[in-house]
Amino acid sequence: MKHLVTYRPHLRFRLALLVLACVSTTFVIFTQHTYGYDQDTAKLNSFVQTKANTASMQIFREGRDFIEAQNWQKAAEKFNDFIKAYPRDKDVDAALYWYGYALQKQDRKDEAAAPLVRLITRYPNSTWRREADALLVVLGRKAEVDQALERDNCEIKMLALQSLFQADQERAIGIATEALRATPGRCPSFQAAAVSMLGAHGGARGVPILLDIARSHADQRLRLTAIKRLGDQHTEQISDELIKIYDADRTKEIRAQILRALIDSRTERGNAKLMEIARAGDDLAIRQVAIRYIGELKDAASLDELIRIYDTDKTREIRSQILRAFAERDDARARTKLLEIARQGDTPELRMEAIRRLSNHKRLSLDDLMQLYTSETNPQIKQVLLRAFANSDDPRAHAKLLEITRGSDPIDLRAYAIRQLGQRDDEQTVNQLVAMYDSEQNIQLKMMLLRAFGDSKQKTAVRKLMTIARNDQSVELRKTAIRYLGESKDPEALKFLEEFLK
């Protein structure tokens, strides 16, 4: 890669120089993203919230409040009071860290280092050890940096690079490019961090390096990170470069990441490329990814394109992805299109999926559902509508299911409605099903009611099973009731079975 400088093995010396440049007062711990002051205070708040309200913790909480108010002098005083008053407290390590932190915020660097070194030496396994190491790097303490390098502490290296980007971008870019040219060694995640930081903080100077990585045959993880960061630049020129890489590279992961970058870039040419791929891309899976991202645009033009692709493309997978995109949009036109497909789709499968999508996302009104059920003749589609009734919070949907169980629909649909009602397992519904059992004559429906009683945790259902097991005229129904009683593990049911055997 022509923009990467030739690697020289004295990275240790460079990092020593780096430390001297780390004058930023906000430090960041890097994992896959970079973190800062908000994450520090979030951890402090979480730590305090888990503690009992003791006298020592009251002082600690007061120190926390001063940290949040950025009153560094008062915060340092409070944490120092804690350390002096409770030197053997199990939380003294946390107090040492925040004491050093508050001193560092006042630019009292030498004083700040003392409690941090004490924390590291006396409490090497402390949960605040990592933060203490990181803050020592920011303070420019060479001995602590050497120790971190000897341990090959990747997080400390990432922190150091982050701090240098804040303090001296030119030197940080040089070290980042040098690290990218080197072999990963024992800290391979440092290279991915360097790429990400180049994108986040390198400005225009970082773009050519990111492009070189994205175009290269480098480690795929580095390429994916570079492509993501290029998408954050939001320029037409970079979108053009990403499109060239897409057209030249057949790797699915790279192509999918480019699509993500194009949608994140929010550029005209990036959006146009996405639509082109969604319409006529050469890979079905990548077309589906493009459609998913187009669905995120939420504008009229993208919806027009999705409707156009649905109407012209008969590929089952493509249409299914578009149905999902319609359902996830809070848009009246998208809902209208889904309802049209639910009523008059080309195949029963597409119609059923449209109904499921509408009901799952609450885009289909109960009136629409009932109208569809009344006019529908396909039993499978009617079953999907029954599930939609069951998922609805509208009392009318519950009443409709009860109506169907008692009505003139085919037995299979009535049984399916009973099954949907049984899954609710609330006291009112179980009582209604119990009453239905006594008036029902069809054995198949009675079996379905028994199944609902067996699945229920309501005492009414258990007692109804006991009555059936003892008194029902049908031997088959009695046997089924006994089986469900045994499977219920209910104490009352088990006692009944024990007495039944005597």
How would you characterize this protein structure?
The chain has 30 helices and no strands. It has helices at 11-21, 37-49, 55-68, 72-85, 92-105, 109-122, 129-139, 142-150, 154-167, 169-181, 189-201, 203-215, 220-231, 236-248, 252-265, 268-280, 284-295, 300-312, 316-327, 332-344, 348-360, 366-375, 379-391, 395-406, 411-422, 427-439, 443-455, 459-471, 475-488, 491-501.
End-to-end Cα distance, whole Å, is 86 Å
Low-pLDDT windows of residues: 1-36
Structural class: mainly alpha
Radius of gyration: 33 Å
- Tell how many strands the DSSP assignment holds: 0
Largest sheet: none
Q: What is the 3D shape?
A: flat
Helix content: over 70%
Work out the helix count: 30
For this entry, what is the oligomeric state of its chains? Answer: single chain
Beta-strand residue percentage: under 5%
User: How do the helices and strands follow one another from N- to C-terminus?
Assistant: HHHHHHHHHHHHHHHHHHHHHHHHHHHHHH
Mean pLDDT: 86
Concise overview:
With 502 residues, the protein is mainly α. It is 75% helix and 0% strand.
Name a few traits of the molecule.
502 residues; 30 helices
Secondary-structure map:
Blueprint: H1 11-21, H2 37-49, H3 55-68, H4 72-85, H5 92-105, H6 109-122, H7 129-139, H8 142-150, H9 154-167, H10 169-181, H11 189-201, H12 203-215, H13 220-231, H14 236-248, H15 252-265, H16 268-280, H17 284-295, H18 300-312, H19 316-327, H20 332-344, H21 348-360, H22 366-375, H23 379-391, H24 395-406, H25 411-422, H26 427-439, H27 443-455, H28 459-471, H29 475-488, H30 491-501
Helix pairs in contact: 1-8, 1-9, 1-10, 2-3, 3-4, 4-5, 5-6, 5-7, 6-7, 7-9, 9-10, 9-11, 10-11, 11-12, 11-13, 12-13, 13-15, 14-15, 14-16, 15-16, 15-17, 16-17, 17-19, 18-19, 19-21, 20-21, 21-23, 22-23, 23-25, 24-25, 25-27, 26-27, 27-28, 27-29, 28-29, 28-30
